[in-house]
Every structure is written in structure tokens, then in C-alpha cells.
Amino acid sequence: MTDLPTDSDAPRRWWHAADRLGATASFLCAIHCAALPFVIALLPVIGLSFLADHRFETGFVLFACVLASAALYSGYRRHRRRLPLTLAVPGLLLLVLGVTFLHGNSLLVHSVLVTCGGLLVASAHFVNLRVDRSGHAGHIHGPSCAHP
Question: Which of 47, 63, 118, 120 could form a disulfide with 29 if both were Cys (CB 3.0 to 4.6 A apart)?
């Protein structure tokens, strides 16, 4: 038996890469949103003032929403576990709520919403990767299985 990838493994590898990218982006988003109130005055000094721009943040959240939706839905179709979606849906709602409706009202409320949302979406990606690695839909790990 060989462990060479087949053509049917290519989409799976792509979705794993998308989940990794989504988890990293969501985690960085959460850090960005949690730290922003504390470092906002320093950003122009170090040339990163664009990170405090509402348009940058909105674009980043839209990207995260599209990537998370695609990667998590694809994962659900493979493994049929709902936990990643259960984490992602409230996380995405918090992100969207934080950057749209409540952005101008309170920096603290905004930061809490998008930080919690980003952490939930990152968690959903991590769980999706873990569930997908633990077993394929219809695949049973046994003594004759080549997978660890």
C-alpha cells in the first residue's frame, strides 16, 4: 500500500489549507480586535494606521465570513459533524454585528463583539480540522487501515 495522494485527495487538501488559513486569520482578527483599543495611538507611529481603518476591518470580516462558510460547509459535507458550524454561526454573527451595527457606538462593545466572534470562528476551523482528521465519513479505522 502506498500513501501517495490521489486526485480525489486534492479537494480535501485544499479545504484543509482553507481551514488553516481561516483559523489563522480568525485568530489574528481576534488579537487585532482585542489589542486595538490599547495600541490605536501607536499605529500611525509604526506605519500601521490602516489596521484601525473601518474599511480594512470590514473587508477582513467579509473575507473571513466567506472563507469560513465555504470551508466549514465543505467540512460538514465530508464528516457530518455539527460542532464546527455550531461554533461558527454565532461567531460570524458577532463579527458582522460588531463591524456593522455597533461600530460607531462604543469601541469597547465593538472590540468585545469582534474578539469573541473571531475566537469562535477560529475555534470552528480548528474543530473542523480535528474532526476531519479523526475519520472520514464512511471510513473505519481498523487493523488493516493504513492511516494512523
Answer: 118
Q: Which of 87, 93, 90, 58 is nearest to 75 (CA)?
A: 87
The count of other CB atoms within 10 Å of the CB of residue 85 is 17
**How far is Cα 95 from Cα 147, in angstroms, rounded to an integer?**
37
Question: What confidence tens digit (pLDDT) does each residue in 64-84 have?
Answer: 888 888 888 888 888 889 999
Contact by Cβ (8 Å): 29, 64:
yes
pTM of this structure = 0.65
Which residues, including other chains, have CB under 8 Å from residue 100's CB and lie 6 or more apart? 58
DSSP string, 120-134: HHHHHHHHHHHHHHH
- Grid coordinates of 136: 472520514
pLDDT tier at 138, thresholds 50, 70, 90: very low
Cα dist from 96 to 22, 55, 60, 105, whole Å: 16, 13, 11, 15
Specify the amino acid at residue 78.
R
